[in-house]
């Protein structure tokens, strides 16, 4: 909250120094929009972020938020039977409202998108209907 007040104070002082009421209105709206996720109760923070790109087509990235949601992915170009293609491998996961962890691993290549759902997430009701 203190950071937002300091930002608003700075923006207001800059707007007043330039003598524009329009700048002041835009500044107040901008600060209000920046705080919208907090006002809506979304307090998740990014706790891990990594990105790498070698400039030749290969990349990787990863992020994780404070609520346990995450995604990891790497990809690059491959040569298959004389054709160039892109292959991407990754996974993502999240906790549902009941506290269960859901994980999806995937590969996307010349054969399309191929998800692999973690077997621990699948719950079967094996009661027989008679």
TrEMBL record:
PROSITE patterns: CHIT_BIND_RR_2. Keywords: Cuticle, Signal. InterPro entries: Cuticle_Struct_Prot, Insect_cuticle. It comes from the Eukaryota. One of its GO terms (cellular component) is chitin-based extracellular matrix. One of its GO terms (molecular function) is structural constituent of chitin-based larval cuticle. This is Uncharacterized protein.
């Amino acid at each position: 909250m203190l950071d937002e007040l300091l930002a608003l104070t700075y923006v207001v002082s800059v707007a007043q120094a330039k003598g524009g009421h329009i700048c002041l209105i835009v500044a107040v709206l901008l600060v209000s929009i920046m705080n919208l996720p907090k006002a809506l109760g979304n307090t998740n923070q990014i706790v891990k972020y990594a990105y790498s790109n070698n400039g030749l087509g290969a990349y990787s990235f990863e992020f994780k938020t404070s609520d346990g949601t995450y995604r990891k992915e790497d990809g690059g170009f491959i040569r298959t039977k004389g054709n160039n293609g892109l292959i991407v491998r990754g996974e993502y996961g999240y906790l549902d409202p009941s506290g269960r962890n859901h994980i999806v691993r995937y590969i996307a290549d010349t054969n399309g998108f191929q998800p692999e759902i973690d077997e621990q997430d699948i719950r079967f009701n094996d009661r027989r209907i008679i």
